[in-house]
Design goal:
The protein is an alpha/beta fold and 287 residues long. It has a single domain, classed as SGNH hydrolase (Rossmann fold, 3-Layer(aba) Sandwich). The protein is 39% helix and 14% strand. It contains 9 helices and 7 strands; from the N terminus they run H-H-E-H-E-E-H-E-H-E-H-H-E-H-E-H. It has a 7-stranded mixed beta sheet with strand order 3-2-4-1-5-6-7, sandwiched between helices. Helix 4 (111-121) packs across helix 9 and helix 7 (193-207) packs across helix 8 (228-237). The longest helix has 25 residues, at 262-286. It is globular, with a radius of gyration of 22 Å. 40% of the residues are buried. The structure holds 2-acetamido-2-deoxy-beta-D-glucopyranose (NAG) (3 copies). Residues 185, 225-226 line the site of one 2-acetamido-2-deoxy-beta-D-glucopyranose.
Amino acid sequence: MKPARQPLRLLLAAVGAAAMLSFLLLLAPPQNLSFFSSYSYSPYAHRPKLLFLLAGQSNMAGRGAVLHPLPEPYLPHPRILRLAASRRWVPAAPPLHADIDTHKTCGLGPAMPFAHRLLLRGHHVDDELLVLGLVPCAVGGTRIWMWAKGQPLYESAVARARAAVADGGGSIGGVLWFQGESDTIEIDDATSYGGKMERLVADLRADLQLPNLLVIQVGLASGEGNYTDIVREAQKNINIPNVLLVDAMGLPLRDDQLHLSTEAQLQLGNMLAEAYLKFNSSRGSML
Ligand SMILES: *[C@@H]1O[C@H](CO)[C@@H](O)[C@H](O)[C@H]1NC(C)=O
Ligand SMILES: *[C@@H]1O[C@H](CO)[C@@H](O)[C@H](O)[C@H]1NC(C)=O
Ligand SMILES: *[C@@H]1O[C@H](CO)[C@@H](O)[C@H](O)[C@H]1NC(C)=O
């Protein structure tokens, strides 16, 4: 390197640094959470995570009204990550399904409060190491036949689950499943729901090579048609090990009488977390 060129290099470096700084100043401060979530980076992104697949239809994707300010259990946390549609780990911030359930306006769902509750209540010896990875896959208006093996929704969920565990991404803690409202319109959909759900659990377990994979179903709080009771009965009657039911019936609905309100989603998130923790501690004591 010729010494004579040093000052020029230094000058160029200084100009570059100044340009970068002014660029950063233009970007900062973050205007709001969605800005924060789409651009910030979590130091935990590459840690092994306890992963949860979020699957089903609109009430899993979230249609709860976005409140300002957001309730605390919806705020980003450095140890709650989300697998974006691009398959990159980003800090989770609502709406979690914005880039997955793209045909509708997504709102608040159960997964953020679920994750916050787990961080708060998860019994960990080394608590600071519990990092959660949420893998959104839910799409509004979908019937259970669309989630059968071979269908795009199923294949995409399996591919996203595999991408989530790849490269030391972590291990799957379970699937949170909230679906069935659209299967209450046609009697044939309703009466075949139980068999299709059992098939879905078996296929997921086989494809992910997790024979004991935990699946937490949410018992329907509403339906689009007249056969909600039939689907709810099917959900209750699924009798496979490690398939749980958390019943959302009675939680407050929005004016459309179909979608859970934000208050309901907060409660549901907590209920799902308690169900997971109870399951996990009973499994722990069996080992
Ligand atoms: C947050 O910022 C994004 C982009 O900067 C904007 O599109 C969005 O409307 C803002 N949201 C709120 C609630 O202000
Ligand atoms: C699940 O149970 C295992 C075994 O008891 C325990 O080590 C782990 O911390 C538990 N996970 C959570 C999130 O509580
Ligand atoms: C439910 O039943 C009522 C009364 O029989 C009928 O009018 C309505 O169209 C039904 N709803 C659906 C979605 O099929």
